[in-house]
Amino acid sequence: MRNPWRVLPLTGFLITALVACGTPPATTSIVDRPAEEPLVQPVVQPAAGGNGDPNIVLVLTDDLSMNLLKHIPAVRTMQQQGTTFENYFVNNSLCCPSRTSIMTGRYSHNTGIWTNGTPDGGYQAFRDKKLDQDTFASDLRKAGYRTAIMGKFLNDYQPGSTKSPSGNQPAGWDEWSLAASGYAGFNYNLNQNGEVVHYGRKPKDYLTDVISRRGQDFIRRSAAREQPFLLELSTFTPHKPYIPAPRHAGLFKKAKVPRGKSYDKANTNPSAWMRARKLTKAQKKLMDEQYRQRLRTVQSVSDLIVDIKGQLRRSGVEDNTYIVFTSDNGYHMGEHALVSGKMTAFDTDIHVPLVVTGPDVPAGQKVSALGQSIDLRPTFADLAGAPRPKKADGRSLAPLWRGGTNSRQYVLIEHRGPLVDPNDPDREVFRSPNPPDYTAIRGKSWLYVEYVTGEREYYDRKKDPLERRNVVNQLSQKKLRSLHRKLEAAEKCKRQAACLKAQSLT
Length: 506
Description:
The protein is 25% helix and 15% strand. The protein is of the alpha/beta class. The protein has a ten-stranded mixed sheet with strand order 7-6-5-4-8-1-9-10-2-11, sandwiched between helices. Strands 13-14-15-16 form a four-stranded antiparallel sheet, covered by helices on one side. It has a two-stranded parallel sheet with strand order 3-12.
């Protein structure tokens, strides 16, 4: 039986956030408003456990594209100190369905969460389907962990007002500090354990910094209680409107969207939704401005990681804490001649960072095995010594940094759309065309897509790593039948054993 009051030597820390490599710069000390002691839920006594249970910190960014990583110093340092997953993908490249899959470990076709708002998405649908009762937070809370989430939760979550706070306690979380529309970084309400606090426009009110300070306070108090903890730090950055902290506003003045070989280049043999694509001068100019802002916003994420690691050291738990860094989806800006957006099956949108540091994580290691967002929940349970989640479709990634392998041959990508809600934060000024409904499977060296329209795409990534030439018409009927069989098996699978079998088909 785990003793939650025992002093725990903490060796690793799991932060899931997408960041880049390098030596982090010194960060500015920010004085917080006087902080009230957060309301603490009654401690759930552990059902089972072992000795020295590690802490887990998840840093989850919003719309972080791979081309931003090299500009995030703290993540580059994490890559030097830990393990980088080179082939890690989301199941659905849209905020709410992706975050739902991360928390539940289940594919979109099993959660039924497809969009950011009702009726088939958003926080209310998440609750109505009782998905909130079965997440990595509930797993670890049952295992005796203190749990906390700071920042962004799910689209349509409402914190309430200072006079009328929301009465909704996010299931599975002992503590929370959650905003609804914190995309602008300032002038927002934060529901702090049932009490709503309004933050204005002073530099100290910048949301990423606020959740960092509150996360540090949670670490300090949890370590003092000698109880293992799970902390999710979920930033709204670098999501549009890409507002940086004031201290970073003058950086990257000459940066532009990378002009790679797929920039402003229409695909060969494209599906109907991508035809006749060509960027205008105005679109290019706007995206360059947006890209500079995105670079600036992620500097606060780097600062957050540095400051969180500092608090872990001060609290004496750094060595027993896993840190995992990732994003809910990627982002394209000009690739395939598409303006700013996501939701495609291209690597720009589905390939996201996953960097892990912790007690048994080798330094400087790269894992080439395929991983997916549905794997985080089983991974956290594995690290905590909690029972394997019965409904999860994914499997633990921990064996991969310990030298193991898996039989996964491809990952499943799903999309239902397009979105039509004018209030959705994922609508763009220069709106990128949304693909019609599709299901796709992505192997290490290929991508196969089937659209609801009947159109199909196949990209040979060995010859065409930027996915510019659709060569589906060059495939034999035998090859097409094989791909369809694999896709069909993956999009119907339910729970780990069946999904493992489906993704192992050759």
